[in-house]
Amino acid sequence: MDLKRYYPVVVLILVVILIQILTSLFGITFYLTQLTMSAYYSLLTIGLCMLMGYAGQISLGQAGFFAIGGYTTAFLTTVNLIDKAEAPVLSLFKSLGIMVLREDLYGNKILHLSPWVAFLFAVIITIFIAFLIGVPVLKLKGHYLAMATLGFGIIVYRVVLGTRAFGEADGITRVPGFNLLPGIRVSGDFANRVENYYIAWVLVIIGAILLINLVNSRAGRALRYLHGSEEAASTMGVNVSRYKLNVFVLSAIYASVAGVFLTHFNAGIGPSEASVMKSVRYVAIVAAGGMANLWGTLIMAVTLNFLSLRGVFGTYDDAVFAVILIVIMLFAPRGLIRKGVISEIEFAFKKLKPGGIIKVKRES
Amino acid sequence: MSFEQVLQYIFSGITVGSIYAVVAIGFNIIYNSTGIINFAQGEFVMMGGIIAHSFTPTMPLFLAVVLAVVITTAVGSLIELVFIRSLKNPSVLRMIIITIGLSILIREIALHIWDEKIRALPFFTGSEVTSITIFGAHISPQVLWVLGITALIVVALQFFFYFTFTGQAMRACAANRKAASLCGINTRKMVNLSFCLSAAIGAVAGCTVSPLTQTHYAMGTPLAIKGFTVAILGGLGNSTAAVLAGLLLGLLESFSISLLPMAYKDVIAISILLLILFFRPGGLFQSRQIVALKSF
Predict the structure, then answer these.
(1) In chain B, which residues have their Cβ closer than 8 Å to the Cβ of A284?
(2) How far apart are the C-alpha atoms of B77 and B71, rounded to whole Å?
(3) Which residues of A touch B108 (CB under 8 A)?
(4) A65 within 8 A of A252, measured Cβ to Cβ
(5) More confident residue, B67 or A324
(6) Interface contact A329-B101, CB threshold 8 A
(7) Taken in order B214, B217, B222, B223, is the CA torsion positive or negative?
(8) FRET partner for B19 with CA separation of 20 to 30 A, picked from A36, A137, A289, B204?
(9) Which pLDDT score, from 0 to 100, does residue A364 have?
(10) Quick check: A139 and B296 CB within 8 A?
């Protein structure tokens, strides 16, 4: 077995630990909060990278899946069932131990499904919707595919914005923490900051390892053929539509899981998470990371999300992502982070000098 | 629902629908000459309204509208020169991403030049309370302006594409770019012209509709999506069918408000878009044989 492909994972783990130690040493652990959020956004982005980079299908509706995950868990863990506690279904759930009884800030008793069940439910719903949408959508190509996924994203946005149960423009707040295991809790409490930082990054690392294995498997090779030419892949016996659909569902699951965890971490979710601009932003990050480049995408996702969350771009936040999209697509459609990019820049500079092109030609 | 109410809904439907149709025609003009869907099409409509509004305090309304159209046209031309021309055989994915980026960029620039306030041009004749009674339905004279100008745009474009030399050259360019350039047509110029044209009609529509629906920096994207829905509904590239499809969508939307909450208005238009894409990607009016030859 070729272990070389896991070297970046080791580097990533070391960097994650190093950052935690450094922030603790310098007393700037507040950075970890944004790094945790960036990690969850990165999880979504590497899933999208799989879809866009490896399967070659654009999705402008990824924020929709994120919102489906987030809103499902937020709804199920905040809706109060105490009045219906005697209903047979709920008694069954209680005896199975999947209900949680807690008190809110004002001492009111709240009975709701346990976050684990909500999480599983969110993933199942996402898979169901992704299949439902994916079958017809992935028959389309180019503009039609882009518009169809964009349309899906807008429908999700409009539904969460217009539905009373999802809090309309306010979203859902006061979402409780998520006890992953006894003693390990996803929540935004200051006391859990370091713990949550590691939870988020462990999730990203698991996600990345799964994708590495997928890329280097038979399915991964099939996907690469598919990206090159669907017709050729189909002739070679690759079941094109099945592979496309599977990757679409997989990327939806990544988005949904990210949505679930971030919602518990932020203790709430609002309709802006489902907006078109979010979906465009994820596409921008994948494009900047180099499309079929898992690590490039991850680096870009963490950096850009972290800067954006810290408010570095100020009121130009959306504009920055728009410029990134345009510049990358105009000048470096294969992304910024990849092998050989430095020599290409050198090449470009040599061309700029008088007589440069001739010189470059002779050298090559 | 009384007869007057139905008539009222019909008028509001065709007003909105005709704007969708103009946006769809803008999509079609650029799509025909380049094969690109310009996602920034809705931004041209926004620019028309917002630029004209900032000129109105200093000059007569007509002049402000003309200036807004000229400036928007120049921006459309500039976009083609700077962002589209340099690309040789770009992939569709690249083009989509670039035009989406442009749409966001224009929107953000508009936000920083103006602000997030909702503004409206003055009514072309009368004021917001003037109304004309037609068969018992009360409509604003601006509705007639919108319908009249839309009709004028459609007729003028038909005349331009079929009876002028430049228009015919553009159609040749749309049919086969290589063959057109072999016939001595400057295809680059034609592509640039198509961007100018669709920016101009977008700006005109943005000005005429501004008194009724208001102008806002972020109005472009929803309009572009509706316009695209209409363009698909009529069959991409077919401008006459786009007019019919636009009116159809406008009517559907305006009647849907009487049945469903206002918040779901966009959901209906987009659900129609998805259904059309899934079941009749060639549009409502194209024959099955033609559709079978295309790939979507």
Answers:
(1) 97, 101
(2) 10
(3) 316, 318-319, 322
(4) yes
(5) B67
(6) yes
(7) positive
(8) A137
(9) 44
(10) yes
Using DSSP bridges, classify how beta strands A184-186 and A178-181 pair: parallel, antiparallel or unpaired. Answer: antiparallel
Kindly report the length of chain B: 296
* DSSP secondary structure letter of residue A181: E
Mind listing the pLDDT tens digit for each residue in A142-182? 888 888 999 999 999 999 988 888 888 888 888 888 877 77
Q: Would you kindly state where each structural domain of chain B is located, as residue ranges? A: 3-293
Contact B225 A158 (CB under 8 A): no
Find the angle CA(A264)-CA(A268)-CA(A272) to the nearest 5 degrees.
120
**Which residues of chain A form beta strands (DSSP E)?**
99-103, 109-113, 172-173, 178-181, 184-186, 268-269
List pLDDT tens digits, range A200-257.
Answer: 999 999 999 999 999 888 888 888 888 777 788 888 888 888 888 999 999 999 999 9
How far apart are alpha carbons A97 and A113 in whole angstroms? 9
Q: Which residues contact A118 (CB under 8 A, 6 or more apart)?
A: A72, A73, A76, A77, A260
| B94 vs A contacts (CB less than 8 Å) | 329, 333
Contacts with A222 (C-beta within 8 Å, 6 or more apart), sequence order: A233, A238, A243
Q: Which of B96, B107, B114, B228 to mutate to test the interface with A (most CBs of A within 10 A)?
A: B96
Contact indicator for A63, A273 with CB cutoff of 8 Å: yes
φ, ψ at A150 (rounded to 5°) = -60, -45
Residues of B in contact with A289 (CB under 8 A): none
3-state secondary structure of B121: coil
CATH of domain B3-293: 1.10.3470
Could you give the CA distance from residue B260 to residue B251 in angstroms, rounded to a whole number? 14
Residue A257 is encoded by which pair of tokens?
């899981």
The answer to whether the Cβ–Cβ distance between B267 and A159 falls below 8 Å is yes
**Cβ atoms B296, B281 nearer than 8 A:** yes
DSSP A250-309: HHHHHHHHHHHHHHHHHTEE-GGGGSHHHHHHHHHHHHHHTSS-HHHHHHHHHHHHHHHH
Length of chain A: 364
* Structure tokens that stand for A130 in this block: 């992704």
DSSP single-letter state for residue B248:
H
Interface A-B, measured as beta-carbon pairs within 8 A, has a size of: 116
Of all helices (H) and strands (E), which one includes residue A166?
Answer: none
What is the rounded average pLDDT of the residues A278-305? Answer: 87
Per-residue model confidence (pLDDT) at position B140: 83
Classify residue B218 as exposed, middle or buried by CB count within 10 Å of its CB (0-12, 13-18, 19+).
Answer: middle
